[in-house]
Sequence to fold (297 residues):
Amino acid sequence: MFSGSLVALVTPMAADGSIDWPAWDRLLDFHMAEGTDGIVVAGTTGESPVLRAEEIEDLTRRAVLRCHHKLKIIVGAGSHATDSTLARTHCLSRLGVDAVMLVTPYYNKPPQEGLYRHFMAAADASAAPVILYNVPGRTAVDLLPSTVARLARHPRIVAIKEATASLSRAREMLEACPAGFVLLSGDDATAIDLIGVGARGVISVSANVAPRRMHEACWAALAGDMPRARAVDATLQSLHKDLFVESNPIPVKWAVARMGIIGNAIRLPLVELERAHHETVLRAMRAAGITLEDQAA
Fold:
């Protein structure tokens, strides 16, 4: 159901912080033209913590209207609180999306049983398939493979975005989960290796900047052509690393702005990329073969 390169899409904003709707349309058109296999609306890279509920709904409706049947559409519906996660999931899952993605509840650090009950309740509320999202480096809570295996028995919980970059964990999870449960990498730098052990693709930050190459690398790996996959991915490794010189999505929004697709605006408490990092990100973009709107640094 979900495979290849799925982009964790940035949310374009005007200088006053409002959503830049013409840029949103350009962004969607860009990814359809460049071969992206799916988009994630209002994920971490989309600044979900600072988007209002009505904004996420509007972003999702517009994406469904423009991209339905052309690529997979996933929307981030998770939060730190179960009641708000259920309300978001109930609403967003009924907008024509292919799945909702639910991050582990952050900050309050629930135990595994709390995580299990949280996700089961959200899946019960959903009208669409559910993708779990485990990113302990940001949330301070880790969804363990044994809990994922329990959750995977729910008929609507069909996949996980696993951002620990652990190949041994990936193998453990795939062995424990039912056949057909989909593992997606949440770490660009190790995505090809993860596909090599059974993942079906990646939910990618780098695909905001290099969608065609991320698509090519993923599908080469899925076809078993690991030499080709690694050769393409080698051109992207600097991008995978340097898009995290500051907190995501600060560098990637700046990079996409340099491509002329969106403006360079971001909402507080995040701020624009420090000038000291500009050349680092530019070098990574050039190494990946990215055409810049203005070649001057």
